[in-house]
Amino acid sequence: MSARYVALSGGVGGAKLCLGLSHVLGDRLSIVVNTGDDFEHLGLFVSPDVDTTLYTLSGLVNPETGWGRRDETWTFMRALEGLGGPQWFNLGDGDLALHVERTRRLKAGETLTAITGDVARALGVKPRVLPMSDAPIATIVETDEGVLGFQHYFVRRRCEPVVKRLRFDGAERGTITPEIRAALNDPELRGIIVCPSNPWLSIDPLLAVPGLREALAAAPVPKIAVTPIIDGKAVKGPTAKIMGELGITPDAVAVADHYAGLIDGFVLDEQDASLSARIGTTVALAQTLMRTLDDKIALAQRCIGFCEKLAGRA
Ligand code: GDP
Questions:
Q1: Can you say whether residue 43 is alpha, beta or left, with left for phi > 0 and alpha for psi between -120 and 50 degrees?
Q2: Ligand 1 binding pocket includes 56 (Cβ within 6 Å)
Q3: Which pLDDT band, with edges at 50, 70 and 90, does 314 fall under?
Q4: Which CATH number does 4-132+174-310 carry?
Q5: pTM summary value
Q6: Is residue 205 lining ligand 1, measured as CB closer than 6 Å?
Q7: In angstroms, what CA-CA distances link 190 with 2, 14, 176, 261?
Q8: Is 250 a pocket residue for ligand 1 (Cβ < 6 Å)?
Q9: Considering only CA atoms, which residue is closest to atom 1 of ligand 1?
Q10: Where are the domains of the chain?
C-alpha cells in the first residue's frame, strides 16, 4: 500500500497526532510544520515547532514538557547566567547542538528544508518534516502591551498580554517550497490532515505562505481538521484565551468555521457530540484527547479512516 498523507502541524499539540500518524504511515507521511515561531536568539536560528516535531517523532522529546529533549543538561544556561546573559529562553545543552548546526548550515546558504531533512534522517525520523517556508515569516502579536515577536509573547510574557491582532511579517515574500508542492501533487496522496494545533498561531501562518492554500485546495483528496478545543477549553496553551480576546466563542464550532473553505471534514471530540449539527461540514466523532501512544495511534487511524470514507473508499 503506498497511500500517502500530508499533515499540517504546529508544535506540541500537532506533534502528538503526528506521532500517531507516523506509527501508522511511516515514510508515507509528510508533515508541513509552522515556522512562524522561528526566531534568532543569541545569534542562533531557533525553529521551535520543527524541533518539537523532530524530537517527538524520534523519541528524544522531554515527556514532561512535550518540547525540548529528555535527559537534558543545562551547563550552557548556567554558564550564560554567570556572564549576565539572557535567561528568558531556555536552551538545553543537547538542544543547543541542533541550533548551532542549523545556524552554521543556514549561513553556508543551505535551505531550512534541506537541513531539517538531514536532521530528521540523522535522528531516525521516517516521515518527511517540511518547514512551511524557506524564507523567514514571523508571527507578530499585536497586544494591549504593544507589538510583540512571537517568542516574546509566548515565552517571555507567558501569553499574558491581550491579543488584538495577529500578523505574519514577510509572508508576502515567501513562497510554497518545491518539496511541499511535490508532496501535495503526489499521485499517491490520499488525504490532508490539519492537526489539533492552534488555528490562529500555528496553522494560519502556514496558510499565509503564498501558494500553499491554493495548492491545498487543488489537491484532489479529502481535507480534514481535528479539533484542538474540547468542551470549550484548550487542552494546553492559549488557544481558547486568544479566541476570546479576538471576539470568537471558544468552541469547536468556531474552529470548524475558521477552516471553512479549506476542509471537507471535521473530527469533533465525543464530549462535544451535541455540537455536531452546528459544524458546517461532515463530522466524525472521536476521542481526541491524546494521553498515551495508543490514543495517538487510535486517533491517527480514525483520521485516515475518515479520509477514506470521504473519498468513498470505505
Ligand atoms: P504549540 O505550538 O506548541 O502551542 O502547539 P500546537 O499549536 O500544535 O498545539 C496547541 C493546541 O493543541 C492547543 O490548542 C491544544 O488544545 C491542542 N492540544 C494539545 N493536546 C491535545 C490533545 O491531546 N487533543 C486535542 N484534541 N488537542 C490537543
A1: left
A2: no
A3: confident
A4: 3.40.50.10680
A5: 0.97
A6: no
A7: 9, 19, 20, 19
A8: no
A9: 11
A10: 4-132+174-310
